[in-house]
Design a protein that fits this description.
alpha+beta; Dihydrodipicolinate Reductase, domain 2; 8-stranded mixed beta sheet
């Protein structure tokens, strides 16, 4: 599809809707230098669409975000996963190390007792917690200056919330596609972005199945 779009001069935008989540857009604009990224995407068993692994069903969305934030080549990838209620992996974990030194740990499950969609980022100066569902981003930073010799050091942590544009992600995704079709901007999620996320998803799957 990527080659066909290039050859025909057509617009191709991949449907990674999480890119249009207001919290994710605020996160991308925060100019972070991630050293460690932790993703959790958990949901109860859906009873449908279980003919593919949870890696291709859920984790691929977090892989897309991690690849964009790390912006570095993968140097090591380890993964594990197991089927629970279906014939495919229902739980999966991947640990990815990038050439930049950034490490990402991703966990996806469709057999959880409760839903969770969160990403946590540690950079040299801050810890950032993002809740996709609530569209909230909280930033934790240490106050400047030395810590006191006594007292609770946690009192020297400041917590701020990033401003988030809380709109329906599907609406923003469609608007972005229309703008790209009109030639006003590049696709927000290019075919190359989608292809890379898919390729890494298959690397995760291969790593899982090599160990089983």
């Amino acid at each position: 599809m990527v080659e066909a779009a290039d050859h025909s001069g057509r617009v191709l935008q991949v449907g990674h809707i999480e890119r249009f989540n207001g919290a994710v857009m605020a996160l991308f604009n925060a100019s972070l230098r991630p050293m460690f990224i932790e993703c959790h995407r958990l949901s109860p068993f859906p009873g449908r669409n279980c003919d593919v692994s949870v890696v291709l069903d859920l984790m691929i969305h977090d892989l897309d975000l991690v690849l964009k934030m790390a912006d570095s080549e993968i140097v090591q990838l380890d993964a594990s996963g197991v089927p629970v209620f279906s014939e495919q992996e229902d739980i999966a974990n991947a640990r990815i190390r990038f050439a930049s030194g950034c490490v990402a740990n991703l966990t996806s499950s469709r057999v959880s007792m409760e839903s969770m969609r969160k990403i946590r980022i540690f950079d040299p100066e801050a810890y950032v917690s993002t809740n996709y569902s609530a569209q909230e981003v909280q930033v934790y930073r240490k106050k400047p200056g030395p810590l006191p010799r006594s007292g609770n050091p946690m009192e020297h942590i400041t917590v701020t919330s990033l401003p988030v544009r809380k709109e329906e992600p599907l609406k923003l995704e469609l608007e972005a596609f229309l703008e790209a079709v009109r030639g006003n901007k590049r696709p927000e999620v290019s075919g190359e972005d989608g292809l890379r996320a898919l390729e890494v998803s298959w690397r995760v799957l291969n790593a899982i199945r090599e160990t089983r």
